[in-house]
Structures are given as structure tokens and as C-alpha cells.
Amino acid sequence: MALYTRYPPQKKAVSPAMTEPEPGPAPAAPRYRDAHFLTSAARLAQCPPDTGWEAAFAGRSNAGKSSAINSLTNNKKLAKTSRTPGRTQLINFFELSDSQRLVDLPGYGFAKVPRSVQQEWTRLMEDYLQKRQCLRGLVLLMDVRHPLQPLDEQLLAWGAAAAMPVHVLLTKADKLKRGAATTALLQVRARLDKHPGQASAQLFSALKHEGHAELGAVLDAWLTEAHAVEGGQQG
Length: 235
Ligand code: GDP
Prior knowledge:
Radius of gyration: 17 Å
Shape: globular
Bound molecules: guanosine-5'-diphosphate
């Protein structure tokens, strides 16, 4: 079954003044096991230079984002497992090569978080998703037992507004029987069929190390495609 069919993505057009230096030819597929921590940012201005290729991970707190990044990179300590929701409102950058990065976006799920923290998160996420030119795609993690919560829909909407490809990881797939997990996957895909942008979905289990090849294929495509910005407006 084709899981990831509609690409290459078209990035937003940028004015010549904003254009970064020519990035050169697309790099080879990264080795995720080479990932190492680069830096953290609380604001867009603190992010590393906006060049090269990035793939970002976002999800509700406790969705399994840290576990997925650690599992993909085979590094149990790379992304720290979450603490109190809202305490860590930082974007964390992990370098794969000189020009390729994985990006761990701050988790969301605001039951116990002050409004000011929610607003700060919204501003940071909107800024990053809409303005980061080197961002090639967004991995959106959802617990397979509770997908498509309101804030997940918000992330999908931002992804669409930014013409950003989105790949949904339905995490903790081992918590459901295969039939129930497949039903959840099909329901999410039916929702994504209505998504105006490029979107795909898969099951994933960090515990069972299932779904790596599928996720790796999506990330490889995002992190190696030629830059598509040629001054054309996104349609
Ligand atoms: P984050 O807040 O999104 O970074 O989530 P974490 O990676 O810290 O995971 C939250 C909880 O879910 C932890 O207790 C993990 O052990 C658990 N978890 C994460 N991935 C899986 C999985 O694939 N299977 C199961 N059964 N539990 C998982």
C-alpha cells in the first residue's frame, strides 16, 4: 500500500532578500544513528542558521515523541522523556550531518499549564512552522488510542497553512490488537484524505521497534529532496 505518495512539497516563495545562500546539491540519506544534540531554542531567532534540511517532530505530551526519536536514532538518551507538560517549551535540534537535522518541538497538552505558557507555545510553533525555510516536513505523533485531538487538528491546520508535508505516527501501536490498530490507522487516513496538503500516516511502536523502515523512508525523502523554492507561489 502506498503510504506516502504526494510530493515533492513546494515551499513558500521567499523574497530574494530572505533567501539563504545556495545550499548546493541535495545530500545523501542520513544515518539516524549519527544524530547528536546541537542546540535548543526558545525563540526563532535562537535557532541554528536557516539552511539545509530539517524534519520536525511534534505531538501532545506523553504521545511518545521522545521514545520515537530515541528509537529511530537508537539512542536511549537523545531526546529526554517528558516531564511536567509545558515546563520544557524549547525547540531541540539534533544534527544528522552538516546540512540535515531532526527537530524536537515542544510537546503540548495544556490541562495544567498557565495561559501565558500556552500562548508562548502557540507563538513559537507558529513562528517555526511558518517561517523556517529549511523545514521539509512535520512528523505529528498521536497515541494510537487517542488520535486527532483538538490540538492535533491545530497542528494539521498549521501544516496545511505552511504548505508543509505532514506524516502522522500513531504511536504505542503495541497497546492495541492488530485489528484495532489498523482500524485506527484507516480512520486517521480517512481524515487525512480531507487534508488540503500532503499527508500520510503509519503505525509505530518504539517498544517493539516497529515502523522504523516506513518512518525512515519518509524522512529520507524529506531530508534529501532538491530545494523546490524557485520563486513560484504555492498553489
Ligand atoms: P513524550 O512526552 O511525547 O516525549 O512521550 P514519551 O516518549 O516520554 O513517552 C510517554 C510514555 O509512553 C512513557 O511512559 C513511555 O514509556 C510510553 N511509550 C512511549 N512509546 C511507547 C510504545 O511504543 N509502546 C508503549 N507501550 N509505551 C510507549
